[in-house]
Amino acid sequence: MLLTVSKRLEFSASRRLRVAHWSDAENLRAFGPETNARYGSGRNYVAYFVFTGPVDPTTGMLINISEIKERAGKIVRARFDHKFLNEDNSAFRDVPPTAENIARQLYVDVAPLFSDVEAKLCACHLTESPERSASYYYSGVCEANYWFEFSAARRTMSPRLSAEENAQLFGQATSAHGHNYRARLTFRAERFDPEKLSGLVRYDAIDACLRALRAELDHRYLNEEVVGLKDRPITTEGLARYIYERAKSVMPLHRVRLHERNDFFAEAWEGNTFFLGLQEPFHAAHRLHAATLSDAGNSKLYGKCNNPRGHGHSYLTEATVGGEYDVRSGTLYDFVALKSAMAESLEPWRDRHLDLETEDFREAPSTGENIVRALWPRLDNRIGQRLVRLRLWETANNRFTLRRT
User: Fold this and answer.
1) For the chain, percent of residues with pLDDT exceeding 90
2) What is the rounded distance in angstroms from the CA atom of residue 301 to the CA atom of residue 67?
3) For the chain, what is the mean pLDDT?
4) Which string of DSSP letters, residue by residue, matches 229-253?
5) Beta carbons of 2 and 44 less than 8 angstroms apart
6) Going by C-beta distance under 8 Å and a sequence separation of 6 or more, which residues neighbour residue 288?
């Protein structure tokens, strides 16, 4: 199992995507119209610093999140926040500040600051807009993400099932209904080269791909108006698979994520691998306190989270299941069964004080690390050991993730 802790930090900056020795036409093909912003264009960036390592059994922490905020925050403020990156940050004098290059530079700048702790920075994710993000990993792997939206109607059903089987499996969703879909296309380089100045994907290529997908899918009745979907299961998994196949036919795509709702998605990866994800919130109170530490030690370690009267969060969980895609039904896992399993697993914690009213944290601090580790087996057992990733947001800025390895 792999446990990670993520801290979210924000900064604002301007940048120009342009390579000086390229022609205007070359820059336009690589970066799009933004390259004409002579004095730079701005973004409100969000950076996620992801750490992995052992959990201290006394404190219940992999790393003190306040330390991430303090140390990484200094780098963000000094080198990135409210800067014209091309001129105010020497890393981008000769390399355009694409999302991939900024993610890589954040990793390079921040990772050495944690050489004195067991937890290590393993990834940096950067979001520059709702349509564009990138990730850089300790191994040198880099990913570029492009999002697009479309609205469409459908009947959730498979032409390979009988009417009775469709009704039993999909219920009311077999009636015509619609969604505002949001899809993410991910491109991956196993060894990122910042000297590839256009980034992982050229603007003209991804723009053409997304335009074609929108033209085919947007404001369509998927069961009847999209030729390529005829005689195929119209499910979230099936549609993600179709988008993957269409984009992969023209670009070196790694995977697709498709949201039909903010809290529900399907992913289609290369190698015919599929995942299904669902979010479920719960509300609870807790107090961070280690029984073996003194009151002064607890106060120093946990700060305001050690308030003797406790505090609370609107927690958000996200479970991702993997397994074999059933080509007959077009499904990976039963949506209703997954939602029920999540609700049942969280029920003992809903509107409770985790330390005082449950047995899970009598002997261990109710840190995010320990909460996600306690939730994993009770949920995984309910879904036949199909769980591959479990996430917990304590706040929008603090995320804890457990993965099956």
Assistant:
1) 91
2) 11
3) 95
4) GTTS-BSHHHHHHHHHHHHHTTS--
5) no
6) 60, 298, 302, 305, 306, 365, 366, 367
Q: Which pLDDT belongs to residue 104?
A: 96
* Section 114-135 average pLDDT: 96
The mean pLDDT of 387-393, rounded to a whole number, is 98
From 40, 37, 73, 67, select the one nearest 53 (Cα to Cα).
67
Q: Is 328 exposed, middle or buried (0-12, 13-18, 19+ CB in 10 A)?
A: exposed
Question: What pLDDT is stored for residue 172 in this prediction?
Answer: 93
- The structure's pTM equals 0.94
Taking phi over 0 as left and psi of -120 to 50 as alpha, with beta for the rest, 323 belongs to left
H and E: helices and strands count for the chain: 12, 15
343's tokens: 């609700």
Residue 269: count of CB within 10 angstroms of its CB: 17
Sign for the CA dihedral angle at 160, 163, 169, 171 comes to positive
Grouping H, G, I as helix, E, B as strand and the rest as coil, residue 162 is: coil
What is the residue type of 283? H
- For the record, the structure tokens of 291 come out as 């029984």
Quick: pLDDT tens for 260-313: 999 999 999 987 889 999 999 999 999 999 988 999 998 998 999 999 998 999
DSSP string, 340-390: HHHHHHHGGGTTEEHHHH-STTSSS---HHHHHHHHHHHHHHHTTS-EEEE
Asked if residue 160 has pLDDT above 90, the reply is yes
Q: Which two tokens stand for residue 138?
A: 């300790």
Q: What is the pLDDT of residue 14?
A: 98
Residue 50 tokens read as 């992801």
Compute the CA torsion angle 222, 224, 225, 230 (nearest 10 deg): 80
How far apart (Å, rounded) are the C-alpha atoms in residues 289 and 297?
Answer: 10
